[in-house]
Amino acid sequence: MELSQRQVEQVEERLRSAGIDSEGVFLSLLDHVCCAIEERLEHGKDFDRAFEESFSVFGEFGLLRIQQETTILLNQKTHIMKPITFISGLSCSLLLIAGTVFKMLHWPGANMLVLAGVLFLLVLFLPNYFLERIRLEQTRMGLMAQLAAWIGGTALLLGTTFKMMHWPFAYILIYSGTGILFFIHLPMLLYKNAQERVSAGKNKIVVTVFMLAMAGIMLSNAPQASSTVAEGLKALDMQTKTVLEEEQKQYTRLLLGANETQAAKARKIISSCVLDAQSLSNADDVSSLVLRNNSRTQLIKAYQAANAVLIEK
Amino acid sequence: MYYCLMYSSELIKGTLKTIVLRLLEQNGKMYGYEISKHVEALTHGKIVITEGALYPILHKLEADGAVLTQTETIGKRMRKYYFITEKGTTESKERASELLEFFQTIELLLAPKTSLG
What we know:
heterodimer, A: 313 residues, mainly alpha, 3 domains, B: alpha+beta, Arc Repressor Mutant, subunit A, two-stranded antiparallel ribbon
């Protein structure tokens, strides 16, 4: 017994009101429920009863659960690494672990092991891994998120290596890497997951927690780092002040015993030393300290030059 | 997942894909409701596949390329028929033999011991 147009519409309405908005799931369930109703009608039941019975088997949220489960199953991507990615990843990890152990035990060759591990990681594992991931991404946002992770991860890795090797620019790399991961990659990832209506997988939660922890560590370290810089500058400030005072005392002493030409020459050297007006401030913030120290160094040089002139016989 | 009248659902968990693929392999084109009724009839009502388990699996098999679909208008609505593909047939055979082998192994473990003399 076939359902009429009106009856099919009734089923459609019920499915829509249950929140079924995925076209594929909707069509499947529509046919399924209609079949179930038709079967009940053939057993001599009336439409209203058959209708209610056919829907009651799903339970309160059963229909919606079918849709959610379908979405989850369809979005599950079994990510199997290519052999080269797997092998390079494994060898990098081994090299890095060996390097770290060597370094801790102060054995020779530690730096070579770490550098080799990092190099492998940068040129073999990361490109392979991210190119695979990018290939799997379907949305623009997902693609950008992977790219950001690649760039940020590379910068962070390089920064850590530079730091370990005491090379310059380590902190710039570490901070920019973390910045990219935290402020660009993470929001994109969360946005993408929200869009795809997929709950963040366990590993994504782990990544998020890890990145939050990293950010916490860096933020708690940052004021410390800048306070160390400020203290260093203050110490330098005191030093330059003492040196300048010494030079000035000597200048005054030497000026008394100098002849007219020498004194004129020395005065000219001192007066030609032009100082930055801002450097006269007594503030203790980092930029004032830097300016003041620069000016003092210039002045010290000028006094030294003047004193050298005055000493000449 | 499974709506199972006689066996514990744990026992047959994970075999749904195999059952669906096998049915499609044997019967050619089938639609969702037909598949669930077929399983019920074949097992004399011992296994009933619920809609909640069947449709997510069917959509997944379609996305994986194990089955193809064809939509036909039946009365006032659309009906989706499923066919097994070559990829699906291979998978079905692999899964079925794996499952049978597993049951044989279990039988070895659970069967009453014959006298060893």
